[in-house]
Amino acid sequence: MSWRNFLLRPARMKCSTRLLALFALTLSFAHLAWADDWIFAVNEGVTYQDGGPVPERYKLLQDMLEKELKHPIQVKSVDRYGDLEKGLQEGRYEMAFIHPAHVGLRAVKSGNYVGLATAAGYTDYRGRVLVAKESTLRTMDELRGKKVGVPALESITTVMFSATMKDMGEPNPAAYYTATRYQDAVPFMVDNKFTEAGVSASSAVIKAWTAKGGRILGETKAVPIKQFLVSTRLSAEQRDKVRELMLRLADSENGRQALKGTNMKGFVPWDDSVMNGATKWLGL
Predict the structure, then answer these.
(1) Running along the chain, 284 residues long, what does each successive block of 10 average in pLDDT?
(2) Alpha carbon distances (Å) from 238 to 59, 87, 96, 113
(3) Which of 45, 108, 116, 224 is the most exposed place for a label (fewest CB within 10 A)?
(4) How far is CA 179 from CA 134, 142, 176, 279, in A?
């Protein structure tokens, strides 16, 4: 090493140290900016997912919420019900749009979230029991002890059907279930006699079933799904702003475009009486 390089080495080291420190500081500020974003979690269920990546489709709604609240928001798709429920329990989300009603209702019951609205057209959501045309089953009571095809065990449709069976005196209905991830696979199980009945809340599945001669044996009570919740960390004023924005989306062109991205037609007010009744019936 030359004397010149030897003498310049401390200066170079000092410059490198300063650059590293500046880089670390930049990362720190970037992290703080990201951490300050409010997280808007979205779960659209399994059967009803449609139209592309959630952050892209919800961008217009995100922009409207940011403008109203004057705060940056990050839309996050949370597909797994277990991950969604854990995130709600840990308070990771400031806002959430939740398909599975039992997950949303449990979060509201905890006191950490407030229900603001539910999707229009989904307030009368109920499971229906499918049986073959030639089935000897004639009443819901006759389902006790019979094999039944259901969506995933954590599906709101299955949770509603379980509550119905317990109302009829079946203490452990899940013991007789054959579960499938997708509701449109339920008719297949009945058609091929893997199960004696099946449960679905999909209007498309039910319509196709009855169109080919299948029967509907009975149905569950209705529970509103696709709920919009906000964290109690938001102030009462902020929660009111979000509520008003969601309820008025269908009244403006920008709002209607935002709704188009979510595949919803609009939102209706949260009904405490109905929701409290559903929470009790589902045993949450």
Answers:
(1) 50 49 46 69 78 92 98 96 97 98 98 98 97 96 96 96 96 95 91 96 95 97 98 98 98 97 96 98 97
(2) 20, 21, 15, 13
(3) 45
(4) 23, 20, 10, 23
Domain spanning 37-123+224-281: CATH 3.40.190.10: yes
